[in-house]
């Protein structure tokens, strides 16, 4: 976040903490104007809770793995490849041209040790999973990368990583990409899309090896996609090397989940541009390239400036006031660290609690990214509730939570450019700030909740609603879409 305010200091990076995925304030029910935004559905499927991961009665892994240690991670990875190959053997045609052919070989290594080469390169300290075009081989780091994915995001995070790598194999089978002509952005988002297509099959209950709930289970898969993705493009990088921001990559996954492999095959530079809408470039590229901290200290002055900027963005007839102490509210539940009270038209902030939410944590540490906009997105969402009250709209229910997410996204889009305020203070958001907001939608959902903190259980749908405001034309679209 770029700040243009007086006496605001920049906070240094702090020790990263793992964010636990959790719902916020209970689940609420309701309907929206489109099936895509239906609070009780995920890409047309019912929202379900229950076990996610390996089926206890599933088959054993089959197939050779080069350099395997025969441990649990290699067995999980091999089962994932087995499942992917079963799916694509039966679902490759007619959406994709050519003929499906399983990859030629699999390789495991431990990035903490010197081991075999992969694709002509040393695997020491290569904490990753990859596909090699030259010998049609998929490899994975069993020492750090996949164990961390499994520990924090579940067994299907491992499967999700490998489904992305198998997506690269599919691209070459179908002749969809050319290493010399296709941008990295197109190739990566297409692979994300293929992963979404396969994981819908798992969520539908068709896999004999894995099961996936569309509530918390899918939330964890999306969180893993966010954390384990490559860094946001910086100005120091080649524009063709960008893999996409969190919102872009998750939208590619969602495209595959909702529309299938034919939609994935249609991803090209023009399709990505259409999906981006007319987002400002500042929301596509990290202007500082992660070279220095862009996180601002969450303090009273920053919050005051944020309230002024939000007033300019939303232009309410009766702007809410800011209070840094919690007081009983006659007509709403508290939603710490930020609450909105309709009867007093006040946004109450627990400053120490909000500072904790805004404490920087980088995905370089393999945790959900967090920073100043993790906190300011929550403030924005409570301001959005005040705006809805000013229009005499209801403040409770699932549709309200999604409308709030949409209005939050729309405001944050406006804040990607300088917003004129009476005092001249501005807060300018960047691509990394949007990633922080997306992570928050998965970790707690408060930015997509109603006045009592009730939110829909599917982070998938929360993100769809937020993104609809972020790439939409104006605030009015949120009111009509979630009327």
Q: How many angstroms does the end-to-end distance come to?
A: 32 Å
How are strands sequenced across the largest beta sheet?
5-7-6
Mean pLDDT: 87
Oligomeric nature of the chains: single chain
Low-confidence stretches: 2-25, 287-293
**How many alpha or pi helices?**
15
Radius of gyration: 22 Å
How many beta-strand runs? 12
The helix-strand sequence is EEEEHEEEHHHEHHHHHEEEHHHEHHH
Total of domains: 2
Strand content: 5-15%
The level of helicity is 40-55%
Main beta sheet: 3 strands, mixed
Q: What class, by secondary structure content?
A: mainly alpha
Shape: elongated
Organism: Mycolicibacterium fallax (Mycobacterium fallax)
Protein name: Peptidase
Provide tags for this entry:
483 residues; mainly alpha; three-stranded mixed sheet; 15 helices; elongated; disordered N terminus; Peptidase
List the helices and strands and how they pair.
Layout: E1 2-4, E2 41-42, E3 45-46, E4 53-54, H1 72-91, E5 105-109, E6 129-132, E7 137-141, H2 145-153, H3 155-173, H4 184-203, E8 210-211, H5 216-227, H6 246-259, H7 261-265, H8 269-276, H9 300-314, E9 321-323, E10 338-341, E11 346-349, H10 351-357, H11 372-390, H12 398-414, E12 426-428, H13 431-443, H14 459-470, H15 475-481
Parallel strand pairs: 5-7, 9-11
Antiparallel strand pairs: 1-12, 2-3, 4-8, 6-7, 10-11
Helix pairs in contact: 1-3, 2-3, 3-4, 3-5, 4-6, 5-13, 9-11, 11-12, 11-13, 12-14, 12-15, 13-14
Please describe what this structure looks like.
By secondary structure, this protein is mainly alpha-helical. The protein has two domains: about 1-35 and about 290-480, no CATH class; about 50-210 and about 245-280. It contains 15 helices and twelve strands. It has helices at about 70-90, 145-155, 155-175, 185-205, 215-225, 245-260, 260-265, 270-275, 300-315, 350-355, 370-390, 400-415, 430-445, 460-470, 475-480, and strands at about 1-5, 40, 45, 55, 105-110, 130, 135-140, 210, 320-325, 340, 345-350, 425-430. The strands form five sheets. It has a three-stranded mixed β-sheet with strand order 5-7-6, covered by helices on one side. Strand 6 (about 130) and strand 7 form a beta hairpin. It is elongated. Mean pLDDT is about 85; it is low at about 1-25 and about 285-295. This is Peptidase. It comes from Mycolicibacterium fallax (Mycobacterium fallax).
């Amino acid at each position: 976040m770029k700040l243009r305010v007086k006496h605001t200091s920049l906070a240094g990076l702090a020790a990263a903490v793992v964010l636990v995925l959790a719902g916020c304030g209970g689940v609420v029910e309701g309907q929206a104007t489109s099936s895509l935004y239906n609070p009780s559905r995920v890409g047309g499927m019912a929202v379900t809770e229950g076990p996610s991961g390996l089926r206890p009665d599933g088959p054993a892994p089959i197939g050779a793995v080069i350099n395997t240690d025969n441990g649990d991670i290699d067995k999980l990875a091999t089962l994932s490849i087995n499942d992917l190959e079963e799916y694509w053997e039966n679902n490759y045609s007619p959406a994709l041209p050519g003929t499906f052919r399983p990859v030629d070989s699999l390789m495991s290594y431990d990035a903490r040790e010197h081991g075999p080469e992969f694709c002509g390169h040393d695997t020491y300290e290569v904490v990753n999973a990859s596909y090699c075009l030259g010998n049609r081989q998929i490899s994975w780091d069993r020492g750090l990368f996949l164990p961390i994915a499994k520990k924090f995001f579940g067994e299907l995070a491992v499967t999700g990583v490998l489904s992305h790598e198998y997506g690269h194999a599919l691209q070459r089978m179908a002749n969809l990409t050319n290493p010399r002509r296709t941008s990295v952005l197109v190739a990566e988002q297409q692979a994300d899309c293929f992963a979404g297509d396969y994981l819908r099959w798992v969520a539908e209950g068709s896999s004999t090896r894995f099961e996936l709930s569309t509530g918390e289970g899918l939330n964890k898969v999306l969180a893993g996609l966010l954390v384990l993705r490559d860094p946001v493009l910086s100005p120091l990088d080649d524009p063709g090397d960008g893999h996409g921001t969190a919102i872009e990559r998750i939208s590619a996954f969602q495209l595959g989940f909702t529309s299938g492999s034919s939609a994935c095959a249609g991803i090209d530079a023009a399709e990505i541009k259409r999906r981006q809408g007319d987002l400002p470039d500042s929301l596509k590229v990290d202007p500082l390239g992660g070279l220095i901290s862009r996180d601002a200290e969450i303090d009273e002055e920053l919050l005051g400036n944020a309230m002024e900027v939000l007033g300019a963005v939303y232009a309410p007839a009766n702007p809410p006031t800011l209070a840094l102490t919690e007081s009983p509210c006659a007509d709403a539940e508290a939603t710490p660290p930020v609450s909105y009270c309709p009867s007093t038209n006040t946004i109450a902030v627990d400053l120490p609690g909000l500072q904790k939410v805004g404490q920087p944590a980088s995905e370089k540490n393999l945790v959900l990214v967090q920073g100043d906009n993790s906190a300011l997105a929550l403030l924005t969402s409570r301001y959005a509730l005040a705006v809805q009250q000013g229009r005499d709209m209801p403040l409770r229910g699932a549709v309200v939570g999604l409308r709030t997410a949409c209005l939050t996204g729309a405001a944050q889009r406006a804040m990607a450019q300088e917003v004129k305020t009476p005092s001249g203070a501005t807060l300018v958001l960047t691509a990394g700030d949007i990633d922080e907001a997306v992570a928050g939608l998965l970790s707690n959902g408060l930015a997509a909740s109603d006045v009592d903190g009730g939110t829909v259980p599917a982070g998938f749908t929360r993100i769809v609603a937020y993104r609809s405001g972020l790439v939409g034309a104006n605030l009015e679209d949120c009111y009509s879409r979630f009327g």
